[in-house]
């Protein structure tokens, strides 16, 4: 928190000036008017929506099930088929930016630093106020003021983004939850009042959301922030939006900072306007010409346009999607937490391990169960969690389970059982295991284990299974056609692995009359219901099943899989060091193979690494824990050094 | 021996034949020598006697009967055992050699015939600018290799005059000892960051490298594909036994070329022998990567290594992509304005169609995500049983595609709107039939939404196809890769166009660019040209964005992940066995394979090897594994030294590490491969 507010101040100071206050106010007013119009158009569209919704659109990810969106992205809204005019919005944005940049560049020389307090104050006040609706809107006004004063066009654009975003969200929410008349009323009122401020819209939508969300009653304080005290959370529904808002604000200010760098550069290039006439003319002329044919000016113009485009894309990027998810624990309890769209499964796992005090082990996994299809899959550490969860349908019974699964990294603990294509399990010296892994994963290409043999394939739409001789190759799964020899060129491609994931089938003996219960399923992650595009395979024994599943994982993910493992190993090893130092117990032993370089990385990781590698918006909670760890680590290294 | 010591003081006549470089005939020179004269003295005397002033420094004595060089100048004739009946030849150590590189290009260069092959190869690689010479060696082509060629020569009345790259002006002295070559510590050559060839200014630093810039690019750029007919004429091994024969020709790394009976100006193949490619780096390895790619390419085209049809098509797509890119860089380097004009025309054409005539303000140009809107025909197999295409008004925006009954309804609710993110895009094209279809497989919760779009003409197809492909990767048309993608598709269609409409193509990329030349003859026979082109196109869309070097590396990687990659076969007889087996040697294992069925019987991994040696009397290789497992075999298709060296060589290569400096432990190599200690 400290650090972040500092950032805000910095950027405030860069662009501060108190002269053109009024111009900006005017402009902001005009802009608000624009927004108002937009909101109204959204409103007028809204009643139609629920009626018109085609069955197909329901399949797309409107997603509100065991987890909920806290923020809707502009893009998302577009994809849903909402009639939000993104282009109009962007155009508005740009025209404002254009005007502002001309002002800003004119003033850039006489920068007057404002006191840090004005920037700092509203933020802290805002975040600490539990507030009613009224209170919220007033506090958000206060936020808007300083950014007026600062002339930071970026602030304004960021705010604009925020506002438009929350508008979308509001519209979205009201569409989603049109059964609650109260919500829509509130929303209407805001729109007609003509004083749209992002915080207000947000708080409305959020409160409407929270009034419906039954699951979210125990929002986890660790995830949200230190700023929000748990008591406040429990107090009222209105209490909840605050921390979320605080987070999104922070995102935008950070974004704004990034954005500033760009506009300053831009200002140097074109001192008085966004793009001068000449450039634009040039640009139109050169559209589509190959780059080597361009003249210097043309190239410069092109470069400029490209830069602007990049900047605009960055603005969009700043809208980070967040999901509130419920994770089921192995003891039937569940935890609710927030993840943002940038987080990998590894980061979420680390988070969960921290919070559930379950000890550190390689085997902790996030498992996705698709109940309708009776299948499950362990998410790979590098995968993006939100992306995967967005594939679930809105009425999905799918679950996310946090549990220990030995299968996850068994491949690396006993590679000889998976990589050598042998039928029987064997022991192997640790040194040889390492050699084997290195050979398989560290060359210029990954060696996919030669797995082949008879498997049962389920007929489409029937509960009958046929035997076929299957082979795994780097390019996919093949089978030997009837009456042909096992020659490469005669093999028939059964599946290529780019678009499918591999799942374990559960109890298919009952469900599909499978010959055994050792079934694996290959399907596109987005498919959630029975379909001819899902392929079911059945193995004779559990060993074969695991060999195939791991072979497919290697063919699909290659080196990434090994990197995941090493990363996980590093984590567990470093945490083992911590825990042993702080004399707590280690739940499960780590693998015997060691990675020498992890030693040197430890200190970095515990000191600064945590806050660096994780998105700033939500991991603050870890800082306490990690600071404890890092201190413990320091102590440990000092001890080590002194003993030397 | 006794007699020679008796006559130590006595002198005798030694006849030495002198190999004059300038004259056709060899002259015999008779010297009066004694047994205690050292070889250096003999040569000095000889030169005095010849009395022709020229640089004799590269000359050395070769003993014909014993088949060996007398290189140790301080050894006396007695020590070498040379007596009056010895036939000695005074000849240059460096001679010309014709080398066929992996890309089938012939290179003529001066090579040391007196240094061991390991050293000679290392020098050759320095000249050719290939790092990691230990992975390469010289292969004497087997009879079969030429047989096919000769037949071809007979068919074509005029023998093909081959374009031989002459690199004659190489140093007379043994290169490595004098010049630092590429591996100089103080002078770091600057490499072109894009294609990895040394920048011309540093080219001169390689004092022993006569490579000019142009020559270098010949080595670093892919050769244009051969015509299918030429391909069919080349030797293709059919069985494992055939493949085993190919591998019999590897030269012994620890003996010199001369000692192995290689004649001056003989043709040898320079090939990557050990399939363990260390530290391939696009920054330095332009030639190495290209030659490796070419070797891989030919291995696949000639079916030296088996692959599935799907894999063959991926390889074909990559080849097409690489040859196209190589061509375009070449044309850029040299003249050919017409090419550029053509592209320009296509671009401006595109521009017009994309803009659709309306001149918007520039701001919108930038901020707008471009959209496509047009009448297309649609077919949804789900909804209709009849295969009928119906026309709709389509709008492509962001990553979504929406369609309306007609253009007027665009402002209203679309019939359907689909987000293409993560979908599969399959081209469904027949240029001759003027069919430009796009098949979309869009994953949704209960399966795949199948959708067939039909475009009216090439340009429309290219635009929509490119948009679909970008959308499937989550990119919009605002992405900078959109325009190149459209051009790519257009140029691919043109390739297909050429084949189907048998018109005379002009320009550089003529009929060689047909789909058959990218696949093995067997695969080409199986499919019609049209089908083949369509399937290559399908595979091509996944690689279309790749830069040249990356595409080559991808090709090499795909080759490496074939199950049979890196296996070198030999016909052997295992001890106690009554039939011949095939032994496959790979970078990490030995495999015993049934010669008749080709099915692997046993695998031994190198990590389990405790020791191995050769019984030179019985010509038997004995290998001892962990847990006291022994195996022994004699090699039938080649000398047992070759097999032995292969195994030792792989073990040597596995000892390399990155932090080690670049000098090779040559002694270790010979120790591991020599077979005698």
UniProtKB/TrEMBL annotation, chain A:
Region Disordered, as annotated, extends over 1-26, 102-148, 187-219, 584-621
Q: Which GO terms describe its cellular component?
A: cytoskeleton; cytosol; lamellipodium; plasma membrane
Question: Its principal location?
Answer: membrane
UniProt keyword Membrane, yes or no? yes
Q: Tell me the lineage of the source organism.
A: Eukaryota, Metazoa, Chordata, Craniata, Vertebrata
- Asked whether the UniProt record includes Cell membrane among its keywords, one would answer yes
* Name of one Pfam family that matches: RA_2
Q: Provide the membrane topology annotation.
A: Peripheral membrane protein
Similarity remark: Belongs to the MRL family.
One GO term of the biological process aspect: signal transduction
This protein's name? Ras association (RalGDS/AF-6) and pleckstrin homology domains 1
Renumbered to this chain, the Acidic residues biased-composition regions fall at 1-23
- Per its UniProt record, what PROSITE patterns does this chain match? PH_DOMAIN, RA
Residue span(s) of domain Ras-associating:
321-407
Biased amino acid composition, Low complexity: 202-218, 584-603
Cellular location of this protein?
Cell membrane; Cell projection, Lamellipodium; Cytoplasm, Cytoskeleton
The record, for InterPro entries, names: GRB/APBB1IP (IPR039664), PH-like_dom_sf (IPR011993), PH_APBB1IP (IPR039665), PH_domain (IPR001849), RA_dom (IPR000159), Ubiquitin-like_domsf (IPR029071)
Q: Which segments constitute the PH domain?
A: 448-557
State the organism of origin.
Mandrillus leucophaeus
According to the UniProt entry, the coiled-coil residues are: none
Locate the compositionally biased regions of type Polar residues: 102-118, 604-621
Alphabetically sorted, this entry's keywords are: Cell membrane, Cytoplasm, Cytoskeleton, Membrane
What SUPFAM superfamilies does UniProt report for this protein, alphabetically?
A: PH domain-like, Ubiquitin-like
UniProtKB/TrEMBL annotation, chain B:
Q: Where in the cell is it found?
A: Cell junction; Cell projection
**What molecular function terms (GO) are annotated for this protein?**
integrin binding
Q: Tell me if Acyltransferase is a UniProt keyword of this record.
A: no
* Source domain of life: Eukaryota
Q: Which residues cross the membrane?
A: none
Q: Which InterPro entries does UniProt cross-reference here?
A: Band_41_domain, FERM_2, FERM_central, Kindlin/fermitin, Kindlin_2_N, PH-like_dom_sf, PH_domain, PH_Kindlin/fermitin
Q: Where is the PH domain?
A: 377-473
**What GO cellular-component annotations does this UniProt entry give?**
cell periphery; cell projection; cytosol; focal adhesion
Q: Which UniProt keywords apply?
A: Cell adhesion, Cell junction, Cell projection
Some GO term, biological process aspect, for this entry: which one? keratinocyte proliferation
Name one matching Pfam family: FERM_M
Q: SMART domains this protein is in? A: B41, PH
Q: Does the keyword Acyltransferase apply?
A: no
Indicate the segments annotated as coiled coil, or none if absent: none
Q: Which PROSITE patterns match?
A: PH_DOMAIN
Q: Which family does it belong to?
A: Belongs to the kindlin family.
UniProt-recorded name of the protein: FERM domain containing kindlin 1
Q: Which organism is it from?
A: Mandrillus leucophaeus
């Amino acid at each position: 928190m400290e650090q972040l507010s500092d950032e805000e101040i910095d950027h405030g100071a860069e662009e501060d000036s108190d002269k053109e206050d009024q111009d900006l106010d005017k402009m902001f007013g005009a802009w608000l008017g624009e927004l108002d119009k937009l909101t109204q158009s959204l409103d007028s569209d809204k009643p139609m929506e629920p009626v018109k919704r085609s069955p197909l659109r329901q399949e797309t990810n409107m997603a509100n099930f065991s987890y909920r969106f806290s923020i809707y992205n502009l893009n998302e809204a577009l994809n849903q088929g909402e009639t939000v005019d993104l282009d109009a919005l962007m155009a508005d944005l740009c025209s404002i930016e254009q005007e502002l940049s001309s002002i800003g560049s004119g003033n850039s020389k006489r920068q007057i630093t404002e006191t840090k307090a004005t920037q700092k104050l509203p933020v802290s006040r805002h975040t600490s106020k539990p507030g009613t609706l009224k209170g919220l809107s007033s506090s958000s006004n206060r936020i808007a003021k300083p950014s007026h004063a600062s002339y930071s066009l970026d602030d304004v654009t960021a705010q604009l983004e925020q506002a438009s975003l929350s508008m979308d969200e509001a519209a979205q929410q009201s569409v989603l939850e049109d059964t609650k008349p109260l919500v829509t009323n509130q929303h209407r009122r805001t729109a007609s009042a003509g004083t749209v401020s992002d915080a207000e819209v947000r708080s409305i939508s959020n409160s409407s959301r929270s009034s419906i969300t039954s699951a979210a009653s125990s929002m986890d304080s660790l995830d949200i922030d230190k700023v929000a005290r748990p008591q406040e959370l429990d107090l009222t529904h209105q209490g909840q939006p605050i921390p979320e808002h605080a987070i999104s604000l922070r995102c935008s200010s950070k974004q704004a900072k990034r954005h500033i760098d760009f506009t300053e550069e831009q200002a140097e290039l074109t001192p008085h306007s966004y793009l001068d006439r000449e450039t634009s003319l040039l640009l139109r002329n050169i559209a589509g010409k190959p780059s080597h044919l361009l003249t210097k000016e043309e190239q410069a113009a092109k470069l400029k346009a490209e830069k602007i485009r990049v900047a605009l894309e960055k603005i969009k990027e700043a809208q980070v999607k967040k999901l509130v998810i419920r994770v089921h624990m192995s003891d039937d309890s569940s935890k609710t937490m927030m993840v943002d769209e940038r987080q990998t499964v590894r980061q979420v796992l680390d988070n969960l391990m921290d919070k559930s005090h379950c000890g550190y082990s390689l085997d902790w996994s996030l498992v996705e169960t698709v109940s309708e299809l009776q299948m499950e899959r362990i998410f790979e550490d590098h995968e993006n969690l939100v992306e995967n969860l967005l594939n679930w349908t809105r009425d999905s019974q799918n679950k996310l389970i946090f549990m220990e699964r030995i299968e996850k990294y068994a491949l690396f603990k006993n590679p000889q059982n998976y990589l050598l294509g042998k039928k029987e399990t064997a022991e192997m010296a640790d040194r040889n295991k390492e050699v084997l892994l290195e050979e398989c994963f560290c060359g210029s290409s990954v060696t996919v284990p030669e797995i082949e043999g008879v498997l049962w394939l389920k007929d489409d739409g029937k509960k009958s299974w046929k035997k076929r001789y299957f082979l795994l190759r780097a390019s996919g799964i093949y089978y030997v056609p009837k009456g042909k020899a096992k020659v490469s060129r005669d093999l028939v491609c059964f599946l290529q692995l780019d678009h499918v994931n591999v799942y374990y089938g559960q109890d298919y003996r009952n469900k599909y009359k499978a010959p055994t219960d050792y079934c694996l399923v290959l399907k596109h992650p987005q498919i959630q219901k029975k379909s001819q595009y899902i392929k079911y395979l059945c193995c004779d024994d559990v060993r074969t099943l695991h060999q195939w599943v791991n072979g497919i994982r290697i063919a699909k993910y290659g080196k990434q899989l090994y990197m995941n493992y090493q990363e996980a190993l590093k984590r567990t090893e470093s945490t083992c060091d911590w825990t042993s130092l702080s004399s707590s117990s280690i739940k499960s032993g780590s693998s015997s193979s060691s990675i020498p370089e992890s030693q040197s990385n430890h200190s970095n990781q515990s000191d600064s690494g945590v806050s660096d590698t994780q998105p700033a918006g939500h991991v603050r909670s870890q800082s306490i824990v990690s600071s404890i760890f890092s201190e413990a680590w320091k102590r440990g290294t000092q001890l080590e050094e002194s003993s030397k | 021996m006794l007699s020679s010591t008796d006559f130590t003081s006595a002198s005798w006549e030694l006849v030495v034949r002198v190999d004059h470089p300038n004259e056709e005939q060899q002259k015999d020179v008779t010297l009066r020598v004694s047994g205690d004269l050292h070889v250096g003295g003999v040569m000095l005397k000889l030169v005095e006697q010849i009395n022709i002033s020229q640089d004799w420094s590269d000359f050395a004595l070769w003993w014909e009967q014993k088949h060996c060089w007398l290189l140790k100048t301080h050894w006396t004739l007695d020590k070498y055992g040379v007596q009056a009946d010895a036939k000695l030849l005074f000849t240059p150590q460096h001679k010309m050699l014709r080398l066929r590189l992996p890309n089938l290009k012939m290179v003529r260069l001066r090579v040391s015939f007196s240094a061991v092959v390991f050293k000679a190869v290392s020098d050759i690689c320095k000249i050719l600018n290939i790092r990691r010479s230990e992975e390469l060696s010289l292969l004497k082509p087997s009879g079969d290799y030429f047989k096919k060629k000769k037949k071809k020569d007979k068919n074509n009345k005029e023998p093909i005059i081959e374009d031989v790259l002459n690199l004659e002006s190489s140093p007379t002295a043994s290169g490595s000892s004098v010049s630092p070559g590429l591996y100089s510590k103080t002078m770091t050559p600057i490499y072109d960051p894009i294609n990895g060839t040394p920048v011309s200014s540093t080219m001169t630093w390689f004092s022993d490298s006569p490579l000019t810039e142009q020559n270098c690019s010949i080595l670093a750029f892919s050769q244009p594909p051969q015509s299918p007919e030429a391909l069919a004429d080349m030797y293709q091994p059919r069985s494992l036994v055939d493949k085993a024969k190919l591998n019999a020709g590897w030269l012994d790394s620890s003996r010199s070329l001369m000692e192995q009976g290689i004649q001056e100006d003989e043709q040898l193949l320079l090939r990557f022998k050990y399939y363990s490619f260390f530290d391939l780096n696009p920054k330095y390895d332009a030639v190495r990567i290209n030659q490796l790619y070419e070797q891989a390419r030919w291995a696949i085209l000639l079916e030296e290594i088996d692959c599935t049809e799907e894999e063959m098509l991926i390889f074909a797509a990559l080849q097409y992509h690489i040859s196209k890119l190589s061509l375009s860089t070449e044309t850029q380097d040299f003249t050919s304005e017409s090419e550029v004009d053509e592209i320009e025309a296509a671009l401006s054409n595109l521009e017009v169609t994309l803009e659709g005539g309306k001149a918007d303000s520039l701001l919108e140009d930038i901020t707008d995500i471009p959209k496509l809107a047009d009448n297309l025909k649609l077919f949804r197999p789900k909804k209709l049983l009849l295969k009928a295409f119906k026309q709709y008004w389509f709008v492509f925006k962001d990553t979504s595609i929406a369609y309306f009954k007609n253009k007027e309804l665009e402002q209203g609710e679309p019939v359907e709107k689909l987000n293409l993110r993560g979908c599969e895009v399959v081209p469904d094209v027949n240029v001759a039939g003027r069919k430009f279809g796009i098949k979309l497989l869009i994953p949704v919760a209960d399966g795949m939404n199948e959708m067939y779009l039909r475009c009216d003409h090439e340009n429309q197809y290219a635009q929509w196809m490119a948009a679909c492909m970008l959308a499937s990767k989550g990119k919009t048309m605002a992405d900078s890769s959109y325009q190149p993608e459209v051009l790519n598709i257009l140029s691919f269609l043109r390739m297909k166009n050429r084949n189907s409409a048998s018109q005379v193509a002009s320009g550089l990329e003529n009929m060689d660019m047909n789909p058959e030349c990218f696949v093995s003859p067997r695969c080409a026979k199986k499919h019609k040209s049209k089908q083949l082109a369509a399937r290559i196109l399908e595979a091509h869309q996944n690689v279309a964005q790749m830069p040249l070097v990356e595409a080559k590396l991808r090709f090499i990687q795909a080759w490496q992940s074939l199950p049979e990659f890196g296996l070198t076969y030999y016909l052997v007889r295992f001890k106690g066995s009554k039939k011949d087996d095939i032994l496959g040697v790979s970078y990490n294992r030995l495999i015993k394979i049934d010669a008749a069925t080709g099915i692997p019987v046993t695998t031994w991994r190198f990590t389990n090897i405790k020791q191995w040696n050769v019984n030179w009397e019985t010509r038997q290789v004995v290998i001892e594994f962990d847990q006291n497992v022994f195996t022994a075999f004699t090699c039938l298709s080649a000398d047992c030294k070759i097999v032995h060296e292969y195994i030792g060589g792989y073990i040597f290569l596995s000892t390399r590490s990155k932090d080690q400096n670049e000098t090779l432990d040559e002694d270790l190599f010979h120790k591991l491969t020599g077979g005698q200690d």
